[in-house]
Please model this.
Amino acid sequence: MKQFPSLILAAVAAMLLVACGKPALIESVESLVANPERLKELRAQCKADHAKVGDEQCNAVAEATRRRFFGSGGPKHTPAAPAEPALAASAPAPKD
Model:
């Protein structure tokens, strides 16, 4: 009967080790931007069960989606080159 508490302690320790296992790897934003099929799959998983996939992964999915839609975040537009002034030679010559 003296071994019973030590067995319970060993069982609890084993359960804690299993519960504290390594977390699932999070796919990076860059890898998701490069792989649109995987991004689509993870977007569907986040929509179906956000809690199961996890906040960190779903945030990476949202950022990858934003980058694919909006691009790299560069300038919104390229300003047009200023118009060159008309040359005086192109105007009709005055009549004398």
